[in-house]
Write a structure and sequence with these properties.
Elements (H helix, E strand, L loop, with lengths): L8 E6 L4 H12 L13 H11 L2 H9 L8 H9 L3 E5 L4 H14 L2 E7 L15 H19 L3 E3 L24
Parallel strand pairs: 1-2, 1-3, 3-4
Helix pairs in contact: 1-2, 1-4, 3-4, 5-6
Length: 181
Amino acid sequence: MCRQYKDKHFLFYSYEEPKWEIMIKLLNMSGTKQFTHQEGIKSNLDRWKYEFKHTDIETLKKKANNDKEYSEYSGLKNFLDISPRIHLISSGHNVIDLVDSIQSFEKAFNVGAVFIDSLQKIYPGNEKSTIERQPQLQDISGLLRKLANETRFPLIVSAQLTSGPKGSPEYDDLWEENLRG
């Protein structure tokens, strides 16, 4: 999306993973060529983690800009081009603070989309609520839907699904009761 919409900013609120892990995953997805196998490092993602822990940023930038000798670093070059427009937020926001934060970003930037991981980790503004979790999630979803309608940019929220017993024939079907967490 960042490459397609060069005038837009994208927000990623993570209630699940630290910013560092998300940044490494985005960097990993930005490249067209994977790293070659290195002893002790099994995946491309692990290689990026290794590179950032063992190589200074200026050396990494030089490798990224030298396509001929270091084509494996093209992902870093691509990521550096788009990263100023990606805002990663390790979030502990309750829904009220989350909505305020998104509205603040909207005032400061031309927002293209907002990603939130994950719905079940967002809590209502009143932390001492005695309401059961399902009605809380419905209220939170309602506030996020209202925000999406007001802002008119995509608001993509992940949620974990539950499934029926593995032995049942409907196991792969999505039923309303399977969406309740």
